[in-house]
Amino acid sequence: MPPTASHPRGYRPVFAVREFRAVFAAHLLSLLGVVVCELALTVLVHDLTGSPLLSALTFALGFLPYVVGGTLFAGVADRYPARRVLVVCDLLCAGCIAVMVLPGTPVAGLLALRCLVAGISPVFTGTRTAALTDILGEGELFVLGRSLLRIVSQSAVLAGFGLGGLLLTVVAPRGALGITLVTFLCSATLLRCGTRRRPARARTADDGALLRSSLSGARQLFGDRRVRVLMLLFWVQPMFVVAPEALAAPYADAIGAGPAAIGLLMCAMPVGHIAAELFAGSRLSPRTRSRIVLPLAGAGLLPFLLYAARPGLAFALVLLTLAGAAAAYGIGLDRWFVAAVPEELKGRAMTLMTAGLMTVQGIGMALAGLAAEFVPVHLTLAGAGALGTLCALCLVLEARRAGAVPAGRESGGDRTARRG
């Protein structure tokens, strides 16, 4: 039986579902591949051109195509069987990496292939998230499964780049890209052999052309007041919370901290997020997790206001850890969102949500850097906290007015998951 509100059992029941174990293992491999690819490609482009700008652009291209792929191709997630979409996405990414490995591939080709991989990513992630509702049901197990994937992603921020950097000390960049190729192929194999084939959510004949289906789905989703405000709740806090990460180096310089401080400032929020989400998933009941969504969404950026006092390194780390912990509101918001979206639009909704999340983070980093050109860094961060809190509180009020808070949010019920 799934866990109930009165008897939370943590993450163990999720791993009892055979198909989820395959999805989880594939997620680990995909993350490994993406992290190694980003580092190796950045180093490779710098080696080939000697240009810091092109090297930085290579990394930035991981954000930019999300909005294009997530908007124009979101219909794929509902139009075709999920397993087929996931496997094809992995194989397409593997094909792109295979071309990158070839010694004759020019820099322009490397950048174009990087864009293509990033454009495929939101379709893959959105389809996988929607597929979790089939594998785990739409209740407690889905929430915990999503939480586990999110925790792994945050952990990759902490460990992935460090391990990737070590790898590049013993393997050439193209050799590292070869490892990425293997991880995508292994992920495709796991998803093909470890998950069941299920029919597509939407009928092709009803949905028409793919582009029209994608844009029509986006209009329907944003036309629904409840879905729209829930989507924005996923986006607004991350848009502002990335400011300290984007400005970690200038802030460390401003307070006279050494280079090691930059790494600490970059790691503090992921540490807070991972710890809080693990606690919420393993110790809090569904009812409690639902109750903390709006308070944490509205108040999560308040610690940034104390940057106005230009805190030293130790206090800044505390503030960042608190802000990271507030991001655990997503574990309750996931359940609200999946309950609000019609079944035939779930794939498109998850794809758009993922694409928007990555896009707003890229925008937030750019805006923070721009503001810091004219305003001291500590005041820029305090301003991000103030403006972000104002936007978040407006969304919290709108969520209540729009009836986006599920009437049955106090229930710990769940749909029975299909177990393998």
TrEMBL record:
It comes from Streptomyces triticagri. The keyword Cell membrane applies. The chain crosses the membrane at residues 20-41, 53-73, 85-102, 176-193, 229-248, 260-280, 292-309, 315-337, 349-371, 377-397. CDD domains: MFS_MefA_like. GO terms for cellular component: plasma membrane. Keywords: Cell membrane, Membrane, Transmembrane, Transmembrane helix. One of its GO terms (molecular function) is transmembrane transporter activity. The keyword Nucleus does not apply. It is found in: Cell membrane. This is MFS transporter. It is a multi-pass membrane protein. PANTHER family: INTEGRAL MEMBRANE EFFLUX PROTEIN-RELATED, STAPHYLOFERRIN A TRANSPORTER.
